[in-house]
Amino acid sequence: MRNDDGIRKRRPVITIGMGREPLCPYAVDYRQSRGRLYTEPESATRTPYQRDRDRIVHSTAFRRLKHKTQVFVATEADHYRTRLTHTIEVSQIARAFARALRLDEDLTEAVALVHDFGHPPFGHAGERALHRAMAPYGGFDHNAQALRIVTVLEQRYAEFDGLNLSWETLEGLVKHNGPLRGPLAREALPQPIDAFDALFPLHLECHASLEAQCAAIADDIAYNTHDLDDGLRAGLIELDDLRDLKLAGSILSEIESRYPTLSKSRLANEIMRRHITRMVEDVIETSFAELEHLDPDSPDAVRRAGQTIVKFSPAMREAVDETRRFLFQHVYRAESVMAVMRNAENVVEDLFARFMAEPDRLPAEWSEAFQRMDIGKRARRIADYLSGMTDTYALGEHRRLFDRTPRLG
User: Where's the HD domain (predicted)?
Assistant: First the structure.
């Protein structure tokens, strides 16, 4: 390597993790990663979790999030959150937690960026429709579908299907909301997760790492705040409606007291900014108290703690639950939103039924070997195809196959 004068320059020494602060004993250590399903040479310049993050960002599934619904169908207005903007916001909050708690920020970011990969078009409406259609064949779960995407459906590499993410990132993807087996499991174990666990065990009876827990609670903070913001933009709620909420109402009062002539748009933005800050600061303080009490000395001690460590204080948990109930009443179940979502569910159900009845309507790469599959595998193949669709692509497919397609938004 030479400079402009032709003089040989010394090649810089590359140090993995260069510039990173010493992490806490309970943080995941990339040097002790449990590896990947398919063994690969280590990178000379990136930790395993940096590679995972980069693979996630460069995947097709990540780009598709741009045109997938968060709450409001993306065609309704330019400024509503999509799955992609929501994911970026979750990632930012999650990294803030990891920095404060001295955890591995790259693993935290990887889990945050991949957590919504499995959502079908039209958000939870599409998931409800696919779950009903797939009920005889094992059901549909967006978390399990995210695992299928990163282990099977993404086909970018010469030597393996999927993204071949590290064990710790897969663990975080699957268990960020808690254990999936045993007395602490909240729901039945989806079949795709069960099948993959038999191949590459993820210790589903345990909690995930603190890094994954940061991503999970960052998701709660992001949507509880930004769904309020989008609800205001949509005209479903007014600023005055927030006054009875413990968290948003107290913030509104203090801003009005200090800035009595502030415009509504600035007032709303200031509420949302402080809303996030209050929750983030509460989680950091509560998590430090939990860590001091439990005194875990390793990531495995975190997994075996028998409880979530990165969490809200009881008072903040009550306020967050109140906000969630408010959003269900005034935003998620507003008739204008529900009418659009009912039409969206019909679109997904129509497509599933048509492809099951006429598999030759599928693209060639999706109908390959269809005749040799049993009905359950056929249904799962169709669910894979549908769940990968963006809102716009699903509507285009519906217009191709049906005489009438409902207008959404």
Answer: 83-202
